[in-house]
Amino acid sequence: MDPDRRYTSSNSIRRHATGISQTLRVLPDEALDMERAAEVQQWKGLENARPLKFLVAGRGGMGKSSLVNNLLELDRSSEEGAKEGFTGSATTQAVCEHTGSKHDIRVIAYDTPGFQDFELPEEDIIAELVYRTDSMLDVCLYCASLEARIGDEDRRICSLLTNAFTPTLWEKAIFVLTFANSEKVLNDYEKIVENFKKKLKHCLKYAGVPDDKVNSIPFCTAGYADPQLIREDCSNWQDRLYVEIIKRADPEVTPALLKLRWGSGAVSCAMGGSLAGAVGGAAVGAGIGAAVGIFGGPFGLPIGAAVGGFTGAAAGAIAGPAPATGMRALMSEELKTVVKAKLALWKKQQQRSRCRQQ
Question: Do residues 306 and 282 lie in contact, with contact meaning Cβ atoms separated by under 8 Å?
Fold first, then answer.
């Protein structure tokens, strides 16, 4: 055989072998990614396990019904939509339920008209609230209009909620300051917001809520005024509020909250697409590698899977259609960090549960 030809063939084999060994080095990492992707898929399987339960509390006229409709994007004229300024008898119904669904996620929002009636016995309000919610809530949104004032009614409502659910309720609570972009508020925005924060915290301390829980509650602003008046921190307030809701809620409902706001594929996008993309990419890549067969039958499948996994991870779109709205918030580093932390916490909870069962 011609020595030059032998040398060329030898080099070609070495080049292919080097390529194979370098590619196969990533297979353990890809396998790990695929294992994590399976965990994400299991986590996502909880999306429709049960309805999400929101408690929307506060005095009348604070924008509670508008908040429910905007968060779920319900038509106010539909049967599902929360009726604004409803006039139901608070003497016979302390709690009102609004049910709806979005992106196949079921939601129950509880309003508290009975809190506005000082003649209704407090024990009746507490009993009905606990019965209706089955003592389980995913998040509590306390509404206060920046056009109004914080007063005795707010202190009473905070006390009633604390007595009904214990101070642990406030670990899942968010203060929502409504009408934040009204012309009246914009004239002295910073001063008004700071004043509301101070007074609402005082209401919780009056109710006996520990300082650490009081100081950990986030504040979100929401507005419904002329777009010309909207401040930068009031635009797209729904996305920001959902991020805070995800932070406060239990990790098992994180997939449902993501899908509720951003639709199918939201979990994959929030995870950066790397995990779910690896699964689909590996499957596609395996077929490509085996079909092309550059490295022969035995190598086509694993190399194709590895390369395909990287391709799928980079694309991140194989796991499902990209959400139509809110991509900027969904792909933010803040939300990605929160979602990954929630997944890690959920895994720990699962492990503890399995240990207890053993």
Answer: yes
Helix H, strand E, coil C: the string for 256-280 is HHHHHHHCCCHHHHHCCCHHHHHHH
Q: Following CA atoms 12, 13, 17, 23 in sequence, which dihedral angle do they give, to the nearest 10 degrees?
A: 40
State how far the Cα of 216 lies from the Cα of 233, in Å rounded to an integer. Answer: 20
Instruction: Retrieve residue 159's tokens.
Output: 């006390």
Check: CB of residue 137 under 8 Å from CB of residue 54: yes
Task: Kindly state the DSSP code that residue 325 receives in the 8-state scheme.
Answer: S
Which residues contact residue 267 at a Cβ distance below 8 angstroms, ignoring those fewer than 6 apart? 40, 43, 44, 254, 255, 258, 259, 276, 319, 339
The answer to whether 327 and 266 have CB atoms below 8 angstroms apart is no
Query: In three state form, how does the secondary structure of 18-75 look?
Result: HHHHHHHCCHHHHHHHHHHHHHHHHHHCCCCCCCEEEEEECCCCCCHHHHHHHHHCCC
pTM score over 0.70: yes
pLDDT tens digits for 166-200? 999 999 999 999 888 788 888 888 899 999 999 99
Distance CA 82, CA 69 (A): 6
Q: Which of 219, 311, 275 is nearest to 32 (CA)?
A: 275
* C-beta pairs of 230-234 under 8 Å, 24+ apart in sequence: 230/181, 231/180, 231/181, 231/186, 231/189, 234/180, 234/181
Whether 95 and 132 have beta carbons less than 8 Å apart is answered as yes
- β-sheet bridge partners, residue 55: 110, 140
Model pLDDT, residue 273: 54
CB 218 within 8 A of CB 237: no
250 band by pLDDT with thresholds 50, 70 and 90: very high
Residue 243 has which token pair? 């991020």
Other beta carbons within 10 Å of 7 = 10
Helix ranges, 90-146 (H): 122-133
Q: Show the beta-strand stretches assigned E in 112-200.
A: 139-145, 173-178
Provide CB contacts within 8 A for 141, sequence distance 6+.
54, 55, 56, 57, 67, 173, 174, 176, 245
Strand ranges across the sheet with 105-111? 96-102, 105-111, 52-57, 139-145, 173-178, 219-221
Q: How far apart are CA 282 and CA 23, in angstroms?
A: 13
